[in-house]
Amino acid sequence: MRTRLFASLAALWLVAPVGAQTNAPSPRVITLAECIQLALEKNLDIQIRRLQPKIDLYNLDSSRGYYDLTFNLNASQRFNSSPGSPDPASRLFGVSSESYSESYGPSLTQQLGTGGRVTVNGDLVRRSGTSFTSFNYSTDAGISLTQPLLKNSWIDATRQTILVNKRTLKIDELALRSQVITTINSVQQAYYELIYARDNVRVQEASLELAEKLLADNKRRVEVGALAPLDEKQSESQVAARRSDLLSARRELEAQVNAIKSLLGDDFNAWAAVALEPADKLVAVAQPLNVQDSWRTGMALRPDLQSSKEAIERQNVVLRYNHNQLFPSLDLTLTYGHNGLGQTLPTGLNGIQRGDNQFYSYGIVLSFPLSNTTAKNNYQSSKLTKEVLLLQFKQLEQSIIVEIDNSVKQAQTAYEKIEATRQARLYAEAALDAEQKKLENGKSTSFFVLQLQRDLTAARSAEIRALADYNKSLSTLSKSEGTTLEKANIGLEFK
Q: Are 485 and 491 in contact (CB under 8 A)?
């Protein structure tokens, strides 16, 4: 697999100097594109999934090995001894005989893509004994063809295996594509949550700063008698609460850092001394959202839907094979060759070269089981399996349609919430500013100011939450459509 990304890997991986001893994590600003690159290179799920197509290639090549040219060599010896005929009327009465022969038969066999087989063979036989004159040599060379006409004709077990392995390879390539999409989506979701967690820490820091400023102002007013001590206690309580909120926000930030680290590499410990800081900001870029267009895109690009189609095609291969096995075996056999005889080996070989003695044969061989129970049941089983796969494909189509519809509506709602939360934040800022001025003029109390401070903090958090959710919803929509790789400018190549 080769990926084309926004930046090269060499510019992305930073390693702490050897022997460096520090307790504080070293900061590292990282972009979303860099996170995706690291995940594609180091993520364990992708590494595992990437190996399966390689295994499939070996299996495919192994199944093709059936068509390798095969060399065979047969060698044998035989000895016969006869005491002669006990019948006086026989010309062999009382005459014993002995014979010895040795045979050598080299041959080359080639399996054909039609289910047939071609064999080129030669035989050398050497005989001796009382029934032969000195040494007698016989040689022959020929070619034979066996071709199925019905069963194993248009498909056999080997061709089925090869075709099934091709489909399996395609399915696992699609599974790798799906895993890459899932991983990228997970990285995007985690990265947007990381930005939110970072920005929320800043919101909580600002909230604590406001609470501390109000506490300082209230202390001064209490000292001069312009404010009741109760207001000071309320301010102190608010400061404590804001510090608690800040600690929680920082803890959530640490959790999000760990979440994205787990996606970026195969060695979590290597990231222990690295403090990740997102370089990107949450922005709201309006996207054209049309559920009909998204449906069409999903039907064309979703790797799981394509994989389901491939599974049906793979089952069609099995169905074709099992249907073929219902037919009887009817094999055509053809043989042609030359033989030679001689008292010496050269004279025997010369007979083949001259073509003095030709031989040929042809015929058919018919064979079939009387009940054919196995083939019939295998065929019916494969038909039902295909029906299951067709129903699963339809079920997947329906689930994708629903998923895309939900994703589009989620993105539309998330975008609308951005404006709503922005207006709420602006109103909260204005309300706090007005109430603060009233407090300074003695026309309000700390209670109301503290309440509006909490409202402002909540409004700010809600706004960045809406921004994060919108970006996450776009990522989810891309995953639902199967367009994650295209939108991330990533290309997968399989070799």
A: yes
Lowest mean pLDDT among 2-6, 26-30, 439-443: 2-6
To the nearest 10 degrees (0 to 180), the angle between helices 157-223 and 229-264 is 160
Q: 302: helix, coil or strand? A: coil
Which string of DSSP letters, residue by residue, matches 189-223?
Answer: HHHHHHHHHHHHHHHHHHHHHHHHHHHHHHHHHHH
Q: Are 486 and 304 in contact (CB under 8 A)?
A: no
* Three-class SS state of 32: helix
N-term to C-term CA, the chain? 7
Question: Which tokens go with 273?
Answer: 């001394």
Domain identity same for 394 and 478: yes
Instruction: Compute and round to an integer the Cα radius of gyration of the chain.
Output: 42
Q: Residue 458 forms beta bridges with which residues?
A: none
* Distances in whole angstroms, Cα of residue 217 to Cα of each of 178, 223, 444, 445, 455: 58, 10, 14, 12, 20
| 197 and 339 fall within a common domain | no
Which residue segment(s) compose the domain that 364 sits in?
A: 72-77+98-155+328-379
- Is 335 a domain residue? yes
Residues 6-26: tens digit of each pLDDT: 333 233 222 333 333 445 678
Cα separation values, 52 from 57, 170, 234, Å: 9, 11, 63
Q: How many residues does the chain have?
A: 495
**493 found inside a domain:** no
Asked if 200 and 221 sit in the same domain, the reply is yes
- The residue type found at 50 is R
Contact call for residues 494 and 9 (beta carbons, < 8 A): no
105-140 exposure pattern, b = at least 16 Cβ within 10 A, e = fewer = eebeeebeeebbbebebbbbbbbebeeeeeebbbbb
DSSP H stretches of helix in 355-445: 373-440
- Whether residues 17 and 117 share a domain: the answer is no
Q: What's the pTM value of the predicted model, to 2 decimals?
A: 0.81
CATH number of the domain at 428, please. 1.20.1600.10
User: Domain tally for the chain?
Assistant: 2
* CA atoms lying within 13 Å on the CB side of residue 253: 20
Nearest to 33 by CA among 9, 1, 14: 9
d(C-alpha 38, C-alpha 314), whole Å: 35
CB 329 within 8 A of CB 150: yes
32-84 confidence digits (pLDDT tens): 999 999 999 888 899 999 999 999 999 999 999 999 999 998 888 888 776 65
Short-list 451, 396, 405, 401, CA closest to 428: 451
